[in-house]
Design goal:
Oxidoreductase; MMCE/EMCE_epimerase; VOC_core; nine-stranded mixed β-sheet; metal ion binding; 2,3-Dihydroxybiphenyl 1,2-Dioxygenase, domain 1; 2 domains
Length: 312
């Protein structure tokens, strides 16, 4: 899509009942840095990223995905996208305007076809960041987010038609059919993936580390701290990235990864990858089998925030 207006993934915002426990996990263990905090809300940055923050935690009585935020190049692009969505009948949460969150900027929010709140913004102030050093096992940046949907084709069509995402690859099973669609909004193999699930929910959020050594050191640090590793370490075929999947204190799956493939968007042709072939799930052969129990855990809890905009 030549007129794609989305440029990249900015941040993922979560609401959590046990705010203090979640905050401690994402800072002391996961390796994110608090950059702004108010009563019951904290903005967490990745040291290697110019984004003001990559995760926002908000205290709430119910666990939910508050929103997913994407970047646009200019305020004019924000206005253009908002106009297109409104014309197409997409429900806007608010019209474009000045953002009141960390870093400011100009943006708007809307509901996707499944009821998730999506934000698109431009002119957000960049953060002073730094190069992550050798053996420093903290996230460089936010890599991608994966969503559960009971209707993959419908969700995929929304993001392709309205936001300009393109299909990179598909995971399939001989009996279960299509299980996951990998979608991109830039040269990164995927910034978004849509997984087959029984209900709308968050599948996982992934964070990029500096390299394989740092990724393994981070995996080990979490293991030594007693954090439950549900799958990994291994290396996927689709995207060619490493993976270690953990559960945060509220049961959200979070991933350490590195070396996610970059594609030539002018020449890339999507492929179907059969997950019944073990090397598709894990090229290295080091990860535990992805069994029925892991599948159920990846479904997560039903998202209670659908078609309900977060208060902040």
């Amino acid at each position: 899509m030549t007129d794609r207006l989305i440029t990249h993934l900015r941040h993922v915002d979560l609401a959590v009942p046990d705010y203090d426990r979640q905050r401690d996990f994402y800072t002391a263990l996961w390796g994110l840095t608090p950059v702004a905090e108010d009563d019951g809300i904290v903005f967490l940055a990745a040291e290697g990223s110019p984004e003001q923050y990559v995760v926002r935690l908000r205290k709430d009585a119910e666990k939910r995905l508050d929103l997913i935020a994407y970047g646009a190049a200019t305020p004019a692009d924000v206005d253009t996208l908002a106009g297109r969505l409104a014309t197409a009948g997409v429900r806007l949460v608010n019209e474009p305007g000045t953002l009141q969150t960390a870093g400011g900027g100009y943006g708007f929010r809307f509901f996707d076809v499944d009821g998730r709140t999506i934000e698109v913004s431009a002119d957000v102030a960049t953060r002073q960041h730094r190069a992550i050093e050798e053996r420093e096992s903290i996230p460089v940046r936010l890599s991608h987010v994966v969503l559960n949907s009971p209707d993959i084709p419908r969700t995929q069509a929304f993001y392709e038609q309205h936001l300009g995402f393109a299909l990179s690859d598909t995971l399939v099973h001989p009996y279960a059919g299509e299980l996951m669609k990998f979608l991109r909004c830039n040269a990164q193999h995927h910034s978004l993936a849509i997984a087959k699930g029984p209900h709308v929910s968050l599948h996982h959020v992934s964070f990029e580390l500096r390299g394989v050594d740092e990724y393994l050191r981070g995996t080990g640090r979490l293991l030594r701290a007693g954090t439950r590793l549900i799958w990994g370490p291994g290396r996927h075929l689709a995207g060619d990235n490493t993976f270690s999947y953990f559960l945060d204190p509220h049961g959200n799956t979070v991933e350490y990864t590195t070396e996610l493939a970059l594609v030539d968007e002018d020449t890339w042709q999507p492929s179907d990858h059969d997950v019944s072939q073990i090397s598709v799930q894990d090229q290295w052969g080091t990860a535990n089998p992805f069994d029925d129990q892991l599948v159920k855990e990846s479904f997560n809890d039903v998202d209670r925030g659908l078609f309900v905009a977060p208060p902040v």
